[in-house]
């Protein structure tokens, strides 16, 4: 499965979502100026990245023949 380029792209998209989420959580936990400046921007980026990741996952499942 790791030889499949589409799977690698899906994996990178999921990792990007996780990184954005962790940065946002770290900023929220720390509070302060960073959180005030970037909280909404990080939330928007996470939602966009999640949307792309879900589309890639669905495309991967569709192109590789579904569950069966």
TrEMBL record:
InterPro entries: Hypoxia_induced_domain (IPR007667). It comes from the Bacteria. The chain crosses the membrane at residues 6-31, 43-63. Residues 1-68 form the HIG1 domain. Keywords: Membrane, Transmembrane, Transmembrane helix. Pfam families: HIG_1_N. This is HIG1 domain-containing protein.
